[in-house]
Amino acid sequence: MIFIPFFLNILITPFIIKFALKFSIVDKPDNNLKNHKKITPYLGGLSLFLSILPFYFDDLYYIIPAFIIMIIGLFDDIKNINPFFRLFVEFAVITFTVVNFHMGFSIIINILFIITGVALINAVNMIDGMDGLCSGTALISLLFFAIISKNFDILYFVFALLGFLVFNFYPAKIFLGDAGSYLIGFTLFYNFNYLTSKSGFGGYFIGLIITAYFFTDLFFSILRRIMNDKSPFYGDKEHIYDKIRSRFNTKISTTVLINYIIVFSFGLISWFSWFKPYLGIGIAFVLFLFTGVYFRLYKYD
User: So where does Mg(2+) get bound (predicted)?
Assistant: First the structure.
C-alpha cells in the first residue's frame, strides 16, 4: 500500500504538466534568480496532493489544513498574493494544527510551536531554488520523522515525493511551485508536531535537528537581507545551495546531491540524539557545524 502514491504520482504528473502548459501556469526564466533555461510548468503541489489524498482522507486534521495551504500556494503561483495575507493564512492553519494536537503545553510553548510552524513553511519555500532540491531534502527529513516517531503513515507522502522526483530532478519537467513547497512545509511541521505530542518537549528538539537545514538557511537569509536593507521577502542567490555551487563550481545535480548528504547527516544526528540524553549537545553541534559551513562559504565570495 505505501508504494501506491509513487505510481499514482507517476500517472498523474504527466497530465498535470499538460494542463499547466495549456493554461500557461508556468515559470519563465529571468536570467536572475531562476536557474532553468526553458519555460517549466508549476502545479507540482497539485500533483503531490492528488497522489496522497486517498491515503490521508480519514485524517481530517491533516488533510484539510494541507488542502488550504496548498490552495494558497496555488493562488500565489497563478497570481502573486499579498505576502501578509499569505502569512495570516499560514498562522491560522498552523494554530489550528497546534490546538488540535492537545499537547498540554502552556500558552507560551504553544505560541513557540505556531511560530516554528510558520517559519518552517517559509523555510521550505525558500529552499525550492534548484531542481529536486526541496522535494528531495524534504523526503529525507520525513524519512527520519517516520523512523524516530514510528509513524509509518508518513511513508505515503515519502513515496509520493519519490514519484514526483522522477519529473522534478534535474532537468526538471515540472516545479513544485508555492503550492508544493507550502504543502511539504506543512507536512514536515505536522510530523514535527506528532513527534512532540508522542515524546514530550524533547521531541521538539529532535524535530529542530531534523529540520536544521531549512531553519538555518531561513535564519541567515532573513538576517542577510535585513543587514543589506532589503525586505525579508526579497529573493537572492545567497542561499546555502547557491554558495555550495559557486564555491565548488558544481553542476546543479551535484549541488543538489551534496545538499541531500547534509540533510541526511542532520537526520543521523537526530537519530543518535533520540537514543542519548544529550539533546543540547546534538543541537549545538548541528548549529555550530552548519553555521560554520555557511560563513565559510559566504566568506569565499
Answer: 125, 178
